[in-house]
Amino acid sequence: MLQIMPVEQAVGKILSHDITRIVPGEFKGRAYKKGHMITNEDVPKLKQLGKDHIYVLNLSDDLVHEDEAAERIARAICGPHLSFGEPNQGKIELVSDLSGLLKIDVSLLQQLNEIPDITIATRLTNQPVCVGTTVAGTRIIPLFTSEENLLRLENLCREKGPLLSVRPFQHRRVGLVTTGTEVYLGRIPDGFGTIVKRKFEAMGSEVYRQEIVPDDITAISNAIHGQIVEGAQMVVLTGGMSVDPDDLTPSAIRASGAQVVIYGAPTYPGAMFMLADLNGVPVIGLPGCTMYHKATVFELVVTRLLAGEKVSRADILALGHGGLCAGCQECHYPNCGFGKC
Prior knowledge:
By secondary structure, this protein is α+β, with helices and mostly antiparallel strands.
């Protein structure tokens, strides 16, 4: 099955696995690819890489080489809008084919990694990803594994659906209502509109109109209804979300007849957040932190709505585990654990 022989005796033999070359601080990669026929010229190079001996592998029918195993695992776990290439040093990476929301069956991932020899590492679920983003990697730990292990993995994936997928962001016509008498009367400029428009545009949607209204429950409620009549598929309200006497936006959302899913989220920044539903149209009250922070409750919830998900109260409460932003000097969201339970 697996024979070790001195490299000098391996001339004319075929490498059964990739051989890595590492130059600290400069290079780490494949020096020799599986399938390469060893020549006399290779012998000193292999010895320089520390390979005085190499493996010659003769597998029985019930064993699978690491490259074939990686391909079979990748094929089994790969869901919609993902792709993968050839194995490199026994590992295959899966990448996103579009911009959207990464979805991972975390329970299934645990089950698959419990299978002997199998390793699958992923990004965190519910992260926004772009075209070409690497979302997962897989390989077996030894040079070969049993056919039984791979069949077990493939059967689980068939039964429970793909482990990984990307849900594309859906274009939404978004109405923006900015509240605040001081903004309505021109005492201070609006600081919200441009930022909110940019966030939606980055995910393929458009804020088709922004309406500025005073701190008045009737005016705010009428603006919500007006946006929906005009065809808004989502209404976002900015301003007036805290507990000051003049902050009437939550009361106005309730007065509009919208069914409140939640007011208050266990995420910092972003606690003063409201999600409601008015005849199937999401109505969202955004806290002021959306203006100042790259990542807030907006990134954690609105991205899921734009991917076509229905977000529940339980979904938002679950954000508490990971909902404390670390406040890094340079924000690198979504490459962090913010909001990921």
